Each structure stands twice: as structure tokens, then as C-alpha cells.
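Notes from the 1:1 (GR / supervisor)

We went over the backlog. Supervisor wanted to see one worked example end to end before approving the batch request, so GR pasted a single chain during the call. The sequence is below; no edits were made to it. Supervisor asked that the structure be written out right there so they could see what the output format looks like.
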Amino acid sequence: MAARFVYITGKGGCGKTLLSELLAEGARRRGLPVLRLSLDSRAETTDTAARPREAAATGALVLDRGEALRDLLASLFRLGFIADRLLDSSSFRAVAGAAPGVGELVTLAWIERVGNRLGKGLVVIDGPSSGHAAALLRSPRTVLGLASSGTIARAARKLEQLLSDPRRFRSLVIATPEDFSLNESQLLSAELAELGVATLPPVLNAVYPLHADPAQFAWLEQAANDDPKLVGTRWHQQRARLHARVIEQLESTDRNTIVIPFLFGGNGQQPGNEAVAAAERLSGRVLGAFS
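Structure output shown during the call:
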């Protein structure tokens, strides 16, 4: 079986990178080869070359747009020196950068090429935020609207086939339990569905755990405000009750929502039991959708 791709997106700050790490870790625990790709050039990496097996062990492989363009040109023309000559042309680079959909198509082609080198396994794409997510997946259609034949059109059709195959490519939209994030994620999911991209069950991330029962919560509400610990506990439980109501509303229409708790802890800490459980839950639901 060829590699399967999961395209993770959502509103900025929703936890895309964290969940891409959790999904990758959960899939590795299940014995799958995993490659995590980052489309953010600012992300940390130890390797920007196309060496997915090494990158899978060290962290995310980060998109290098210049190298991705060269790879695409070399694959289209079959000769590397032609790609180099084209890239040496400032006019060609300007046209390639300005043409609608071409930059996004280069990114998609890079994802497909490095992902397929993994072979049978899971490619986890830490994608752009929701404002740019659909444009990337729409790029094959955009390019085909400009050029319906020729080398670039064949590349666009190949990528469109990948995006429309639910056995190989699915999107995962993440939201946090706030109205604006939820509304944005629902609009994005509908937009991706219109593009023919299969979506996984939605993920609700950073949900505060509800520890207080109704009697305890009533006591917290009436407690004095001069104790910092009580003030902090009351705030946490107020937030948890709000999140519980959001989950209840979501599950009244869709019981497939994947709920990930807020993972407390600082940078550099080893993943705790909650993180491991979240990784298992997320990877189980995602891999189950592909089977």
C-alpha cells in the first residue's frame, strides 16, 4: 500500500503542531513508519533535504520552497540541468511566483514526492492555518483552469487524483472549544468537502477537565476571593463547565468528535499519561478511518 496523508489544519493557535506530533507518535507506537512534514519554514528541523526516513526519527521535515520548485521542474523535464537553467532565470522565478496556484502546486508536489518515498506508512502534514488551508488544496484546479494540457497540467491532475482519494488523503480540522474557532472550523470543513477532500472526524483540542461535581462547584462559586488557589481553581472549573457544554452541543449533532484534553506541562517535559492517551486516541481514530 502507498503512503497515506493526513493534512492537519485549523485556526491559528488551535494546537496544530502539537496534534501533528501526537498523531505521529501514536502511529509510531502502532508500528507504522511515519513522516511528519511542516509547511512552516520557521519550524525547527535538523534536515531540509529530501531524506524522509531520517527526518521521521528526528522531527518534522520542513518545506524548502526553492528546493521544492527545483524538484518539481526536474521531475517534469526529467533533466536536472534544465531545472537549474530555469531557476537561474529571474524572469521565470517571477512568473512562477506570481502565477495563480503555482506556488501552492509546488508545495503539494513536494508533499506527494517526499511522502511516497516513505512507502507504506503515514505522512502527517502540519499544514497552514485555516485562512490558507483551502488555497493549497485548490491549487490543482486553479492551475488546470489556466492550462488544461501540457506537462504542468498532467502534474496538476495527478495531484488532484491524490487529494480526491479518501484511501490515501484526508484532512483533519482542529478547533478549540470557543465559538469563533468552532465556526471557522465548520466553514473550513465545508469548503474542503466542496473540493472533494475527505475529512476526518473533527478534533476539539485543549478541553479543560471537569473535576468538580455540582456541589463542589457551587461551593467554589461562593468561596472568598482572597485565596489565590481558590480563585485559580474556580476559573479552571468555570472554563471546564463551559467546555463541557460545548461538547454536549457538538455531540447532539455529531458523536464522532475527537476530544483532546488540555495538556498541562512546560516545554521539554516528557509526555505524561494524558499525552500518551491522547496520542493513542487520535491515531486510532485517524488510522481507523483509512482502513
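Supervisor's comment: The longest strand covers residues 122-129.
Batch request approved.
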